[in-house]
Amino acid sequence: MWSPTEEEKYGVVICSFRGAVPQGLVLELGETVQILEKCEGWYRGVSIRKPNVKGIFPANYIHLKKAIVSNKGQYETVVPLEDSVVTEVTATLQEWAVLWKQLYVKHKVDLFYKLRHVMNELIDLRRQLLSGHLTQDQVREVKRHLTVRLDWGNEHLGLDLVPRKDFEVVDSDQISVSDLYKMHLSSRHSVQQSTSQVDTIRQRHGEACRMPVPHHFFLSLKSFTYNTIGEDTDVFFSLYDVREGKQISERFMVRLNKNGGPRNPEKIDRMCALFTDLSSKDMKRDLYIVAHVIRIGRMLLNDSKKGPPHLHYRRPYGCAVLSIMDVLQSISEIKEEKDFVLKVYTCNNENEWCQIHENIIRKSSTKYTAPSSNYGLIISLQLLRGDMEQVRRENPMIFNRGVSVTRKLGFPDVIMPGDIRNDLYLTLEKGDFERGGKSVQKNIEVTMYVLYADGEILKDCISLGSGEPSRSAYHSFVLYHNNSPRWGEIIKLPIPIDRFRGSHLRFEFRHCSTKDKGEKKLFGFAFTPLMRDDGTTLSDDIHELYVYKCDENSTFNNHALYLGLPCCKEDYNGCPNIPSSLIFQRSTKETFSVSTQLSSTKLTQNVDLLALLKWKAYPDRVMDILGRLRHVSGEEIVKFLQDILDTLFVVLDDNTEKYGLLVFQSLVFIINLLRDSKYFHFRPVMDTYIQKHFAGALAYKELIRCLKWYMDRSAELVRQDHIQEAMRALEYLFKFIVQSRILYSRATCGMEEEQFRSSIQELFQSIRFVLSLDSRSSETLIFTQAALLNSFPAIFDELLQMFTVQEVAEFVRGTLGSMPSTVHIGQSMDVVKLQSIARTVDSRLFSFSESRRILLPVVLHHIHLHLRQQKELLICSGILSSIFSIIKTSSLEGDVVEEVEMMVESLLDVLLQTLLTIMSKSQSQEAVRGQRCPQCTAEITGEYVSCLLSLLRQMSDTHFQHLLDNFQSKDELKEFLLKIFCVFRNLMKMSVFPRDWMVMRLLTSNIIVTTVQYLSSALHKNFTETDFDFKVWNSYFSLAVLFINQPSLQLENATPAKRKKILDKYGDMRVMMAYELFSMWQNLGEHKIHFIPGMIGPFLGVTLVPQPEVRNIMIPIFHDMMDWEQRKNGNFKQVEAELIDKLDSLVSEGKGDENYRELFSLLTQLFGPYPSLLEKIEQETWRETGISFVTSVTRLMERLLDYRDCMKGDETENKKIGCTVNLMNFYKSEINKEEMYIRYIHKLCDMHLQAENYTEAAFTLLLYCELLQWEDRPLREFLHYPSQSEWQRKEGLCRKIIHYFNKGKSWEFGIPLCRELAIQYESLYDYQSLSWIRKMEATYYDNIMEQQRLEPEFFRVGFYGRKFPFFLRNKEYVCRGHDYERLEAFQQRMLSEFPQAIAMQHPNHPDDSILQCDAQYLQIYAVTPIPDNIDVLQMDRVPDRIKSFYRVNNIRKFRYDRPFHKGPKDKENEFKSLWIERTTLTLTHSLPGISRWFEVERRELVEVSPLENAIQVVENKNQELRTLISQYQHKQMHGNINLLSMCLNGVIDAAVNGGIARYQEAFFDKDYITKHPGDAEKITQLKELMQEQVHVLGVGLAVHEKFVHPEMRPLHKKLIDQFQMMRSSLYHELPGLDKLSPACSGTSTPRSNVLVSHGPMSPESIKLVHRHSPLNLLGSVRHSSSSLSSHTSSETGNLVILTDSSVGETAEDMYHMQASPSTSSLSSTHSAPSQMINSAPSSARVLVKGAGLTTLEAEALYLSTEQIQHGRQPCKLSHAAPTNVPHLCPGGATSRGSPSLPDKYRHSREMMMLLPTHRDRPSSAMYPAAIMENGQPPNFQRAFIQQMIGPCKPCSDPNLSVAEKVPSSPYPCITHQSAVWPRWQQLHFIRQCQQWCLFFE
Hints:
The protein has 65 helices and 43 strands. Strand 38 (1474-1487) and strand 39 form a beta hairpin.
C-alpha cells in the first residue's frame, strides 16, 4: 500500500536505474529526486530535472538527505537542508558536465583540460566542506576557493555571473537593486582578479584600505656543498641595503658541521628563517641577501702548526650575496619556494673582511677570490604577503618546520598594539690596540658579558642570530695579526625589561697566541652601562669606549671597582675628579668602538618624554615640557600612550586655566598622530583607554571651551593650522567629551545636565558658523571647513550616547543645512560636502527611521542640486545607493511610504534627466573620439540605472498615483513619459549590464514591465481621444517591441532548469508585455492609421519571437493594419512593402530572432493554423489580394531562409551565389522591389569578384546598367554610389563592366559595350574618351586573335531529395566548369559542398522515392554544348580562335547521348542495331551569365537510328577535314602539316573501328535496303557524304603533297596507296570515285603532333572502346551531330599510338580506350581549342611500323618537330587537382573519376603513369597491320602487351547493361592537348616505342 512519506523527502541517486518495471522512473547516477510516497522498499516521486514525470524506483538506490518541506501536500516544495554553497556546487557541476564534453567535440582542448582540473578541485573542496571537520576559518577559506572557481568556470563557459554575499548566492528580492549591482561588480572583480571578496570589501571601506601590506622573505638553507673547509662553520644570513650601506635585518644563524650538514641533527630540513615586516618601500630598495661564513677551528686553515688542535677560534672564511631585485620577479609569480645557488667567495685580505660583501656586490674582483666550482650555498626563497597572523594561517607548513622569525632592525611601518619588544642591537665596530712590544701584531678576540647591577652575569641575554639559542657570553671572530680589527658584527641583546636598569656590558680583550700552548692572554677591557643617570637608555649612536689595562690575574669579582670609572669621553666629562691610584689604568692610545640601536616598546631614549612623565619634578617647566611634546617621535608616543594621556589629564586638572589650551593642543597632536597609517592600529588602544582607563570627569568643560574658542576664531585668523588640526581630531575629542560627561554625571548623579546640553548646542552653533562662512576668498578657510566636514559624521555615535535620535538628527540637519548650496561653492568643497553627506548616510544615525525623516529632505536637496548641474555624479550615485539600500532593508521590517514619497518627488525626474544626459554623452563621445569622458563610463551609467530601478521598485500603486496626479499639465506628463520611455529603451539598446548579468537583467525587465503597466493607463487616459499624441504612443510601442525582443528574455535559448527558475520567479515577461501592447493597440481606435506602415516592421519582429502566445496576441494587429489601410487607400500596398523590407532586413542584416532556422515555421504558423491571419483575411472583402499577399510573403520567407543559412555558415561560394541569384530574381520577377533587386545585384557581384568569376560579375552588373538610361536625370546617393546624374552612373557602370569582361577574357561581350560608349562619346564630342574607348576595342580584337583561352567543360547536376535548400530541391542545373576542371574534380567539389549528399552512379531520371526522401542525392555528368551561332562555325575562313569562343559561349542548349541496342544485336556488325538516345537540355538563361550555373528549363529526348547516326558521323568528319584543309590552303597553319597528316591517315587508314567500310556492310546491304524501304533517301544521303569524303580526301592529299617534308614522303606515298585501296573498295557501291585527285610531290616540314589511324574495327571489339561508362562513347566534338563522331581539327592531339587494324574479340586483345569528350556520369574530357594545338610543340615521337615510317624516319620526324618548336613559347597547362592524374583503364585509356584498378592491373597503370596526363596525350592506340596474323596479333605481341598493360577488361559503368556497352562510330577517336611533356618523359616514351617496334620486328 502506497503511503505519503514523512521524513524521506529528498535524496540522491547512488546507482543508475533503467526503469525496466511498469511506471519505472529512469534515473541516472547523481540525479536528485523528490520522494512523495513509499511502499515496501520502493519510492514514488519525481526527478528534480524532470518534475513533470512521476514514477517508481527502488529505495536502496537512493541516499536520503535532510530537507525543508514547504507547502506540504500535492504541491509541496523541497529544499535540501545543506550549505547553500554545497548545493550550488552540485548543481553547477551537473551543468558543467554537459558543456565540458562539448568542449572536447569543439576541439577547445586547452579549456577542456583547465575545466577538468577546476571540476576536480571543486569536487575535492565540496568533499572537505561536507566532512564537517573544518574550523570556521577553514570553512570560510574553502568557500572562498569554491566561489572563485565557480565564477571562473561560469565566465569561461559563457554562463551567468552569480552575485554573492559572504560566498552565498543572494536573493534579489531581499536587497536593493543598487546593492545587487555592486555585488555583480564585486563578483566580476573577484573572477578577474581571483582575489577574495574579503579583501575587496575591505578596500571599499575607506580607512582600512590605507593599511600597508607587509612582505616577508622565507629563506631555507638546503645545503652547503663547498666542503673543502673540513671544519665546523657558522653561516649568518642577513638583508643588506646597498645604497645605505647597512644591514636592515637581524642575522639568521646556521651552525654546520665539517660535512656541510647541521651540527644539531634535529635541524635537518629545518634550517629556515622568515625575514619579516618588510614594507613596500623596502621592496623597492636595492636589497641583497648576504651570507657570511665563519669557520670554527685552527687559526690558519692550511697550517696545522698554528695553534694546538684542542683550541678552536672563530675565523672569517667567505661570503656570498644574492640580489633580491634580480629574483623578485620570479619569486613573486609563483606561490612556492624557488632554489638558488650562492657562490661563496673568500677574502684576499682579512683586514677588509668587514667590507667583503660590498666588494662582491661592487664586483671588486681583486679583493676576493672566486670559488673553483659553481657549488656553494643552496637556498630556497619564497615571498609571502600579509600580517603575521595571515601568514601563519595560510602557510602552516612553514611554521611546522620550526622557522626562525628574523625581525627587521628597528620597528616596522605598522606597530601592532600588542607587539611588546625590548631588543638592544649592538654592533662590534672596530678597535685600535697597541702592539705591546711584540714583533708581530696581535690576534685579538673580544669577549662580551651582560652584567646586572649586583655583578651577576645575566644568562641567555646574548643572541648571535635567530635560529640558535641565546648564550651568556659572546666571543668575536679573530682577525690574524691585526691590531686594528674591523668586525662589523651585530649582536642582539634581548635583556628583560626589569633587568635593564643597572645592567652594563663588559668587553674583555685577549691575544690568541699561536704557540704550542695556544693561550688566550687578557690584556684589556672596556664597559658601558645600558641606561644613563637621567633614566634614558643608551642612545642610538656609535660609542667610543675607553680601554683599561688588565691581565689574567686581574679580577672582576668586584665590579664596583671599574663601574666608577668613566666608560667614554662623555662619561669622563661628567666626572672630572677621578683618583689616579686605581687598580685599572686607562690605556690612552687604545680605543674600542661599538654602536647600539634600541628597539623597545618599554624604554625610551627621549629626554622630553621622560620630563613629561615626571612633570611634577619640574613644576616650573610644565609649559615648556607640554610644548616640546610635539617634537617627540611617534614611535615613542605610541609606546607610552596611556601614561602620556594620564599625565595630560592630570596636568589639566591641576590648573585648567593655565595649562588648558596646551593640554588641548597636545591631545589634538596625539589624536592626529594615530591617523597615520603607521600607528593606525593603535586607535583601538586609544578606544580602550577612553572606555576603561580615562578618569578626567571634569575635562569635558575645558575641551568644549577650547574647541568652541578655536571655531569662533576661524573667521579672524590667517593661519589656521591649529584650527584644522583640531577639526581633524573632532571624533576623539568628542569621545573624550562624552566619556568625561558620563563620568561626571555618574559621580554627581546627573548634575549640570542643562549646562552641558546648552554648551553642546552652542558648540554646534559655532560649527554652523564655520560652515556658513564664505570661503571663496580664503583658501585656508576652505581647508578648515573641509577638515570639519570630514570629521563631522564621526561624532554622531558619541552624541547618541547623550541625546535622543531626534535631537542628534536635528543637530545634523541644522549643520548640513548651514552649508552653502552648490551654486556658491567651489568644486573641491563640493566633493568634501558630498563625502560628508555620504558618511552621514552610512552612519548608524541614518538607519533610524525617526532620524531619516528629519535628515532625508536636506540630503535630497543637496543631491538634487548636484544632479541638476551634472556635477560630482559618481559621489551622488554612491549616496543614493546607500539610501536605497537602507530603505530596502527598512521596508522589509517597517513602513517606508513617506520616505519613498519624498524621494519620488525630489529625485525621479532629475534621475531620468541625468541618465538621458549620461547616455547621450556616452554615445557621442564614443562616436567622435572613440573614448569616454570620465563621467560617462559604463560604471556611472550602471550606478544611476540601479538607482532609478531601486526607486521604481520601491514605488507602490499609491506612489504612482500621486506622481501622475501631481503633474500640472499634460505637457509635463508628456515630457515625463517621453523621458522614462526613452531611458527604458536605451537600457535595452545599450549594454549597460553585461550579457552574463542575467539576474540583474531579469530584475530590470521585471521593474520595467511593472512600471509600464502603471503608466499605460495614464497614456490611454490622457493621450487617446482629442489629445492624441503620436510621439508618446510611438515611444511606447517602440519600448514594448524592444522589450519583447530582448535576448535575455528569449527563454527558448536557456537550459530547462534555468527556464523553469525564471518562469517560477517572473513568469514569461514577453507575454505580459505583449498583452499590454495589444490592449493599448485596441485602445487607439481610429488613430491606428498613424502607425501604418511605421510599426509594421517592429511588430513583425515581435511576431518572429518563438513564443506561440506572443504570436497569437500579435496576429489581430496585422489584420487590423491591413484592414485600416484597405479602408483608407483601397489597398494595403504599404503594409506589404514594409513587411517585405522588414523580412529582408531581419535576415540579411542579422536583426530579429537569432534562431533563423525556425523563422519559416514561425511564419507558417503566423499565416497558417487558427487563429491565423489567412483565416481572418478569408472573411474580408479583400480576400483575394490578401491571400496573394500572404502567399508571396511565405515564398519570400523560403528564399530568405536559404539565403540566411548560406550566408551565416561556412558555405561555399557556389551555394551563396545560387541563393543570392534566387532571391534577386524573386525580388525582380515576383514582387517587383527594384531597390532590393539592385542591392542584391551588388551583393552578387561582390561574391563573383571574390570568387574571381569576372565574366559573371560583369553580367551581374549589366543588369543594373540596363535599368539606367543615357539621360541627365539626377540620382540620389545609393549604396557606394555618390549623388550623380543617371548618365554618369551608367557610364561608370559600363567602364567597370568592360573591365570585368577583360579580366574574364570575354572580349566579345565587352566589344558591344565599347561601341555603345563610343556612340555616346561621339555624340558629346568627347574625343579624348572616344579615342580611349576605340583603342580599348582594338586591344580586345588583338586579344581575341593572340591570347590563349581554354574551352570550359559543362556539367549537368541534379539535386534530388528534400534536404537540399529550397532553391535547389529536386531541380537540375547545368554548370560551367572552372579552367582545367574535369568531371572528377567537379564531382569532388560538389560533394565537398554538400558533404551529406550521395553521388548517383547512373544517368537515369530518379523516381519519387528519391525525390521525396529526407536525404541529398547528386547526379552529375558532363554535357556537350550546342552552339546557337552555327553560321560562324561553318565559315571556312574564320580562324579557329574565333570559332572556339562561339562553340562554348552564349550556349543555352546542351545534350548528352546514350547508345543502346534496339532489337536483335548483329554480332558481325553491331552498327546495324546501334541506336542513340539523345537528351537535349534547355536552360533558363544562356551560359555564361550572372551565374556559373542555370536551371534546366526544358528537356527533350529523341532516339537517333543507326543510319542517322552514320550520316552524322560521316558528315562531321567531312566538315572536320574541310576545315583543316581550308586552313592549310589559306595558310592559316604555317609550315607544320602534322595535323593534316594525322587527320588524313586516321580517315584513310581507319584500322581500329574499321572505317566507313563497316557502314557499307551495315546499310548498303540489299537485305537492309529491302527491310527498310523508308530509309532509301537517307541511304542516298550517306552515299553522297561518302562520295564527298573521298573528294575531300583527294583535295587533302593534294594539299599534303604540296607541303609535305621530303623526309615524310614515304608516309605520303603510303597514304596515296591506301587511299587508292579505299577508293577501289567503294568503287562498286559509289561510282565516280575512279579518279584520284592529283598528289604533288614536294617538301614540307613534318610536325607529328598526332597521327591517327582510321582502320576497320569489329563491332565485337568496339564494345571495349569506352571508358568506365557507356556515355563515354558519346565523344563528339562540341558542335558535332554525333556523340561518337571523330573530332574536328580542333581536337587533334599531341601523340600517336598505333594499334592493330583488326583487333581480337576477347577482352585481353583490346588495347584502345575511347577518350573523346564524353557525357558520362563519371568522366569527361576536355577539348582544347585548335589555336593552342597549333602553337604547341610536339611532345613525343612514336616509331610506327607499317605506317610507312622507319625508326630513322620517326627520329627525323621528332627532330624536325623540335626545330619547328625552337624559339616558340610553349603553352603550359598546370594540373592543380590530383584528379587530373591519369588512371589507365584496360587498353591504355585514361580513367577519370572511376574506381581504382584491381591490384592485378596496377602494374600496367604504373607503367603508363610515365605518359602525360589525359590532357597531354591521345587515347587512341594503333598497331601496324603488317604484323597481324588473320586479324589477330601474334602471340608474342599479345604476351608483350599483356605484360606491359595487363589483362584488359572493359572499364564501364556497372549500372549499364551489356547491350549498352557499344561504340557508335567506326572511326577511332583522337584527343588533342596542348601541354608540353618534360624532356625526360619524351625520351622515355620514345625508348619504350623503340623497344616495342624492335620487338615486333
